[in-house]
Design a protein that fits this description.
The protein has 7 helices and 5 strands. By secondary structure, it is an alpha/beta fold. The protein has a 5-stranded parallel sheet with strand order 2-3-1-4-5, with helices on both faces. The longest helix is centred in the middle third of the chain and has 23 residues. It binds shikimate-3-phosphate (S3P). Shikimate-3-phosphate (S3P) binds next to helix 1.
């Protein structure tokens, strides 16, 4: 264990990180923090606007700074943006910040779950989602303490099964 001891959800866009984190936090009376929403509030811009004005590089810098700041926060449930695992520095930070749960989803199911793809700059056509997920799969696995396959499961099923798993391991 470490100082911060957060419960952290990672995974591809559409894996359900934000919803699952919020629902488990509510069930357990914990605080949930959604990284993308925090960055939007801090910047006073939406994610697509941050990408437009600062580029992906600017967005990644914001993401990294925020992840670093989590070491000073009280224990919470954190949902990260899908690209948080891109840099080795972030992957090392994740390890230090708590227990990392990778919510696995296929690219096909992820895309079908995203109701507003225009809010995801990386789904705007440069790299097909299948390829992007393939590029990242190993990085998600490397960063994760626990991998949970969400394919074919409803939000309620994921919340129940992940909660039970984490309770059994003494994490929740
Ligand atoms: C990104 C995922 C998004 C958001 C940004 C970049 C990515 O978050 O951080 O658009 O690189 O996969 P979600 O995974 O919550 O959609």
């Amino acid at each position: 264990m470490n100082q911060a001891d957060h419960l952290i959800f990672i995974g591809f866009m559409g894996s359900g990180k934000s919803t699952i984190a919020r629902k488990i936090a509510r069930l357990k009376g914990m605080t949930s923090v959604d990284m993308d929403r925090f960055l939007e509030q801090e910047a006073g811009m939406t994610i697509p606007q941050i990408f437009e004005t600062e580029g992906e590089e600017g967005f990644r810098a914001r993401e990294h700074a925020f992840l670093k700041s989590m070491a000073q926060r009280d224990r919470c449930i954190l949902s990260c943006g899908g690209g948080i695992i891109n840099s080795p520095e972030n992957r090392a930070l994740l390890k230090d910040l708590g227990t990392v749960v990778y919510l696995e989803v296929s690219a096909q199911e992820a895309v079908s779950r995203i109701s507003r793809p225009e809010t995801r700059p990386l789904l705007q056509g440069k790299i097909p989602p299948e390829e992007l997920l393939e590029q990242r799969r190993e990085l998600y696995e490397e960063a994760a303490d626990i991998t949970f396959d969400t394919n074919g499961l409803s939000v309620g099923q994921v919340v129940r099964q992940v909660s039970i798993l984490l309770e059994r391991r003494g994490i929740l």
